[in-house]
Amino acid sequence: MNYFSSPVLNASLLTCLVVVLFLGAGCGESPDRSAAAPVDAESVDLLFHNGQILIVDDAFSIHSVLAVSDGKVVASGGEELLDHYRARKTVDLSGQMLMPGFVDSHTHISGDARRYIDLTDVSSIVEIQSLVRDKAALLGSGEWITGYGWSEDELAEQRKPTRYDLDDAAPDNPVVLTRAGAHSAVASSLALRAANIDADTPDPEGGVIERGATGEPNGIVRERHGLILQLVPPATEAELRRSLAVNLNSLLAKGITSITDAQKTPQDYRRWQSVYAERALPLPRAKLQFEWDDPAAIKTLMREVGDGDDWLAIGPIKIFVDGGFTGPAAYTLKPYRDMPEYRGYLNMAQSKLVKQINEIHDAGLQMGIHAIGDAAIALVVDTLTETLQRNPRQDHRHYLNHFSMRPPQQTMVKMAEQNIHITQQPNFTYTLEGRYAANLDGWRLAHNNPLRSPMDAGITVALSSDILPIGPMVGLYAATTRKGMSGKVYGPDEAITIEEALRGYTLTSAFLNFDEDIKGSLEPGKYADMIVLPADILTVSEEELMALDVIQTYLQGELVYER
Ligand SMILES: [Zn+2]
Predict the structure, then answer these.
(1) Which is deepest, 232, 320, 414, 436, by most CB within 10 Å?
(2) C-alpha 464 – ligand 1 centre gap (Å)
(3) pLDDT tens-digit series, residues 442-493
């Protein structure tokens, strides 16, 4: 069912007509106002008034009235606008805040298999065990159990789960649970056995099999846990579509009305197409990024779907340059703290990286390049600069994703000159505090996920949440306070204002997608994709900001989520 032609809406319009015809009043909560509008008043679908409406235009205007028609913003201004418009429905915001929906320019959303457990909110190993036990009972013995999202930093036991914890919970099921950040996983004994991993197995290239005192694997596999995950039978297509729709829909409750998914394939795109065509639930707008593994498949899909539409389209090409600090694998200029020989590594040979960047640019495509360590960032910027000098292109909008370390100043100057942008996850400062502190020190630790310095260098910086966790409030909190989970402040000189952070999470993220003319602010002509907040996000306390709930979410002027 297409919810934009839903019977609910038609019914409410009908009721509205009845009220107007028989009672002589307008609709909505302020019939007197509408009735008072002059006969030559322009008619619109919706009028929001008596609110604090963040437009997120150049002046960061705050208005009290917003008019919407045909799913788009018509105008905004003060209460006097109520005299210029006659609305089918008038909404009294009662002083609450209305702002553009969040545009999350880097995240990962998938459909989940029935065997999957969401571990993003678990707070103890005991809780993980109970979830695994329940899943084993549901699926029966022998079935694989998977999951994602645990982090030892958030577990009451303050350690990683082991194979023995999993064996206790589900002795008859192979279990593999991926850590938050997806750079490692813990596997049960049955899962390790299925992957032929035992005390005699050497560490795979680029990965680590953690071992206990006796040399037996303890269940944790870092960076190469794919060796186990590849053994998990695939979910059915129907299972995945149903779950994808549910997971996408759940973003609306977080106020996210648009996403860029950073790691998909042309095959995934077809699944998303069917989910958007079926539209069993309201869905946010989405762009999908593909890696350059199979350029022919990407080009075929691009010919077929062209620019997509304003709901679903192909995003920039992704290149995966280095790993993160969980491995740890981020590629750094100087050695890691306490590891004098170790600087992480490139995810692909440098020659291949250079070739890909040139190939994708020359194909006329945009790139969103994953680079975390300062050496990875500097290398990508140097390469892109040479590429752009050889084959200049106006408005390429290539950008770096993550930008988790502050690179040399000269790298940031080049980025500003070449219009190489960033989408960054300030929430990493909060959630990955433990990883950064373990691997970085001094100035490098303080300037993790820098925001002020790249902005001051003249770089366009968008914000996003990735999956640690998905949801903008932690990012807004960390961007403005620079606080980690422990409350410790990292490099306060890298903090930005809440206004800057909100712009990064809306209009600038839309800009990275070439979508600044249709979304990201509430300026006339743009889609009325917006959210209502219970408090003034510009002035709430730090604690309130972190816990701020979205009350309502609108897509094209239609209420699609209400708390
Ligand atoms: Zn990511």
Answers:
(1) 436
(2) 10
(3) 999 999 999 999 999 999 999 999 998 899 999 999 999 999 999 999 999 9
Angstrom distance (rounded) from CA 359 to CA 382: 16
C-alpha 108 to ligand 1 mean position (Å) = 6
- Ligand 1 centroid–CA 468 distance in Å is 9
Q: Report the separation in Å between the CA atom of 548 and the middle of ligand 1, taken as the mean of its atom positions.
A: 24
pLDDT in tens, 222-240: 999 999 999 999 999 999 9
Query: Three-state DSSP class for 341?
Result: coil
Which amino acid, one-letter code, is at 127? Answer: E
What distance in angstroms lies between residue 402's CA and the mean position of ligand 1's atoms?
8
* CATH architecture, range 113-229: Roll (3.10)
Q: How many CB atoms lie within 10 A of CB 551?
A: 17
Question: How many Å lie between the centroid of ligand 1 and the Cα of residue 106?
Answer: 6
Tell me how long the chain is.
Answer: 563
Predicted TM-score (pTM) of this structure = 0.83
Class of domain 316-496: alpha beta
From 383, 441, 390, select the one nearest 415 (Cα to Cα). 383
Fold match between 113-229 and 316-496?
Answer: no
Distance (Å, whole) CA 511 – CA 13: 35
> Are 105 and 463 spatial neighbours (Cβ–Cβ below 8 Å)?
yes
Task: Kindly give the distance from the C-alpha atom of residue 19 to the centroid of ligand 1, in angstroms, as a whole number.
Answer: 50
Separation CA 344–CA 109 (nearest Å): 27
CA of 88 to the centre of ligand 1 (A): 42
Distance from residue 338's CA to the centre of ligand 1 (Å): 27
